[in-house]
Amino acid sequence: MEITLGIEEELMIVDAATGDIIPDPDPSIFEQARELATPHRVVNEFLRSQIETNSTICASVSEVAQSLRETRRAVIGAACAQGARVIASSTHPWARWESQQVTESPRYRSAAVAFQDSVRQFFIGGMHIHAGFGEADLRVQVMNALLAYLPFMLAVSASSPFHAGRLTGLKSHRQTSIAALPRTGLPPALNSHAEFDAIVQVYRSIGAITDGSELRWDIRPSVNYPTIELRICDICPRIEDAVAIAALYACLIRSIAQDIQEGNAPAGPRREVIEESRWLAQRYGTFAFLPTHGAEEAPGISEVATELVSRLSPHAAALGCERELHGLIDIAGQGSSAERQEDTYREARLDGASEAEALRAVVEQIVAETENLEV
Fold it and tell me: Cys-Cys crosslink for 203: which of 176, 188, 209, 229, Cβ 3.0 to 4.6 Å?
């Protein structure tokens, strides 16, 4: 089965000297990034301090990796030309939303009016992965089965342990910010694209939305493309981590679609179990034990990663992403960005650094990982 992929990253622009967010970056950063990123796209985000990259359609996981190198190189180059740097982290360690400025556009002005502080505090970045395959109904059925794996994907991508200068105790504080908006979290169980269309129509009939893009679920059918869009993940500073998750997504889709087409659609765990696993992933990251896969005892992230890599190896071979998929074991063993950020902060404090110096060390670490394109 042919699977195409596309990836979006929501990056943040920081001052090269201080590491602080730049609330209103030089517009030339966006202009130059757009030119350098061609044929990929670079667009403005809700806040002016953010910049979003959209890859072209990729025919393989290796092309996803190359797209990330190209889009990051464009944005980093444009930012550096204006004395700025870029971080791929779902929150900035100390910047506050009150200091940010909303991008001027009718869409964003309307969102600010409608959602008030819920969206003004939406100072986060994420990574979205599109997968195109099969017919619309098959895509929705595969999406339904993918719900069981969302907690694991969140755990290995987590990169937002800080909020407004403090450790939150969560590996993904981004999930807390998202939950403040309506129509977020897990989607309802769907069996066909017609059911999705019916939900969109209900929301439209009561004036809640204009189209399906305003359903901000963890995973959803795309309105603009014939894809399923994975949205639960934090953004990964290390490209190799992002690519490992993209490989997992593609392999799971191929495996689940094959089962469905052979009449062996997976039943999956109860929704309540998925919801609990999702919370555990948000709280503990790669230290979580996820009661999602039917075992008598909830397996740890390393155990889940090893099982997935083994079970999906035939699909990884067919898709040419065996090495990339194996990266999940590395993340499980070494920790996600959230764990590395916490370690950097605590080590700096133990070495006598002030609070501000320790937080600055975290930004420097994220910048270094974001800018490492030789993977």
Answer: 209
